[in-house]
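ok here's hydroxymethylglutaryl-CoA lyase:
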Amino acid sequence: MATLPEKVTIFEVGARDGLQNEAHVSTENKIEFINRLSQSGLRHIEAGSFVSPKWVPQMADSMEVMQQIQKQPGVIYSALTPNIRGFELALAAGAEEIAIFGSSSEGFSQHNINCSISESLKRFEPIMLLAQKHQIPVRGYLSCVADCPYDGPTPPQQVANIAKALTGLGCYQISLGDTIGTGTPLRIARMIEAVASQVALENLAVHFHDTWGQALTNIYQALTMGIHVIDSSTAGLGGCPYAEGASGNVATEDVIYLCQGLGIKTGVDLDKIASAGWMITEKIGKQPTSRTSLALKSQHYKQR
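and the structure:
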């Protein structure tokens, strides 16, 4: 029997990563969504993104959203920041943590942030200095840890080297992202082994998209290896504007249900998460992609 953690931390990315591809979602709906998530037992919620509205117009209201949400004690509200201007805006908005984002592959780095991997690391240095000055924790996203839509398979050692570089810059945690959702458990295991040789396991998180239906099996693999932080998106919302065909992140509801079945504590109320997911998907005219959410909804209607 595999050794599993007693508890995991769920890092909710639905309000940012989940909604950044949705053209028609109001500021009010975003605020209500985050407020509902805040009541669920989640302790980490990514609430906005301070990137150029030219590139991600859906996140142009992040300042308004972060200033108007009803913040709950014990919940950390974070924001994605690509540069110093983004950091300054996140600070003004009241973000308690920021995230920077880099790539494991050169092709994705060029398409996503218009520079090489080495250039991106240099760009992060002034942000890290400011964050240190203001005592703001910084999380590092690392995309394409399994495959790149432009370069093909990503060598595990390459992922490990960049994860080590981000840690060296001062990131307290590295979120390992299977951006196009093509990873399978054996490949994910080899990647985590390589990264764990350079970065302590307690400083790693996983961020899996479910394009090929492998996200939960990959999460289980990661759990057996000592990972205890999981990124997920309520209702399975999301995608990536620079990775055509990439589906949403693994659904928070599905992760909670998996953990319940494994006897792993999350501290998060499944029904409240599902309810928040039904609300936001109804507002944007979509169905949740979460199997757990759909099963709960079907059960709910049967009991009425």
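+1. The longest helix spans residues 117-133.
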